[in-house]
């Protein structure tokens, strides 16, 4: 197949512009993303140079291998940059919306990407050596296909987790907010600002007021993921047919299912760059190493949002204010099992947390910190009613 000269020169220009754009956007401090997309841009430019070179002589192996290897492995870097963005979105909206802790998404899929890249590179190298030695490229092709199959499989899992995340933040939150169990299109009319209280408060300033780069970032990322997946499925089918199959010998399949798909994906992530969405020049968005799914004494201080929501459900204002007063000062206190509401004097050993109690007749008394007369004190406590003072912030 003789590559179309005008088309491939045009793609060199397009990818040159996209590569330059990604280099400039390094100023938004999304270093992992920028590195991945710069690598993609370099590989795409080299791949189309190889195709342009092959136009003059289709029997040359060097430009053919440059084209095949570079354009085949380029999406590995693209997805490596995209995988990390789901972890960031989970930090912004709240880790409770994911099936895994945010950092696990990055570890699992980036590791899968690296393994896929290594397998594809090994396949390309094996095929290249076979061509140089005038031997069969069958083994190299099989290795190449295995690497692509792993990439497609990992993308399928990622897409499931990605759409699960979108359902959680856009659909399930509205169902809970409206207190309904069945979806209806009218739920989508509920503005994001109205349900923002259900998200993590730490990064509220990124979500409110609504900014176009962040508002449509998930849409841009969805478009990129779907187009890259389409391209990877095409490549898998192409190489599965072999080097003389119908797909690889007809350039229109490549133009539509590879060149156009990769261009759309990169344009989406260039326009909706994570540096714009996450305010990269002024904000840092670290991914927490671990996220605990159950509250414990150790993470009580870190779960301010959840604690406040639970405390707000109390019937008394004192309970809410008390949760704020105590929770930030001593994160080893369990508000559900501490001695705050305990009227048994034998368990009130920490007098620094003594709470005045009120007798039924209205007279105040000590909480029993004086244990000199245990028997008398216990009988007195049985006639008292514990009450929390209405602390004010």
TrEMBL record:
Pfam families: RTA1
Compositional bias per record (Low complexity), positions renumbered to this chain: 366-379
Domain of life: Eukaryota
Bilayer disposition of the protein: Multi-pass membrane protein
Locations listed in the record: Cell membrane
Annotated keywords: Cell membrane, Lipid transport, Lyase, Membrane, Transmembrane, Transmembrane helix, Transport
InterPro entries named among the record's database cross-references: RTA1 (IPR007568)
One cellular component term from this protein's GO annotations in UniProt: fungal-type vacuole
Protein role: Catalyzes the ATP-dependent translocation of sphingoid long-chain bases (LCBs) from the cytoplasmic site toward the extracytoplasmic side of the membrane (flip-flop). Involved in the establishment of the functional lipid asymmetry of the plasma membrane. Regulates intracellular levels of LCBs, sphingolipid precursors that are growth inhibitory at increased levels.
Entry protein name: Sphingoid long-chain base transporter RSB1
Species of provenance: Maudiozyma saulgeensis
């Amino acid at each position: 197949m003789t590559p179309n000269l005008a088309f491939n020169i045009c793609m060199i220009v397009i990818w040159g512009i996209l590569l330059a754009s990604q280099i400039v956007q390094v100023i938004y401090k999304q270093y992992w993303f920028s590195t991945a997309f710069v690598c993609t841009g370099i590989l795409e430019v080299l791949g189309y140079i190889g195709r342009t070179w092959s136009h003059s002589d289709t029997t040359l192996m060097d430009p053919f291998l440059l084209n095949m290897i570079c354009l085949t492995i380029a999406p590995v870097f693209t997805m490596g940059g995209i995988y990390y963005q789901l972890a960031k979105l989970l930090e912004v909206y709240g880790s409770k919306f994911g099936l895994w802790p945010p950092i696990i998404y990055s570890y699992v899929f980036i590791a899968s990407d690296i393994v896929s890249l290594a397998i594809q590179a090994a396949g390309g190298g094996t095929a290249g050596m076979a061509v140089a030695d005038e031997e069969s490229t069958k083994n190299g092709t099989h290795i190449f296909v295995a690497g692509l199959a792993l990439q497609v499989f990992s993308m399928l899992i990622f897409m499931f987790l990605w759409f699960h995340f979108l359902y959680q933040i856009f659909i399930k939150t509205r169902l809970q907010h409206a207190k309904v169990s069945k979806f209806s299109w009218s739920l989508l009319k509920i503005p994001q600002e109205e349900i923002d209280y259900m998200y993590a408060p730490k990064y509220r300033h990124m979500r409110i007021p609504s900014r176009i780069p962040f508002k449509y970032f998930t849409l841009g990322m969805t478009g990129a993921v779907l187009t890259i997946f389409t391209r990877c499925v095409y490549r898998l089918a192409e190489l599965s047919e072999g080097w003389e199959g119908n797909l690889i010998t007809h350039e229109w399949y490549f133009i539509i299912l590879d060149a156009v798909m990769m261009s759309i994906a990169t344009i989406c992530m260039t326009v909706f760059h994570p540096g714009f969405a996450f305010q990269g020049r002024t904000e840092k968005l670290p991914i927490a190493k671990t996220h605990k799914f159950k509250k414990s004494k150790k993470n009580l201080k870190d779960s301010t949002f959840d604690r406040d929501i639970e405390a707000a459900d109390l019937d008394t204002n004192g309970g809410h204010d008390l949760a704020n007063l105590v929770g930030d000062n001593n994160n080893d206190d369990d508000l559900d099992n501490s001695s705050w509401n305990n009227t048994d004097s034998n368990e009130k050993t920490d007098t620094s947390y003594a709470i005045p109690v009120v007798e039924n007749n209205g007279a105040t008394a000590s909480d029993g910190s004086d244990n000199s007369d245990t028997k008398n004190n216990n009988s007195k406590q049985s006639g008292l009613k514990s009450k929390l003072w209405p602390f004010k912030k």
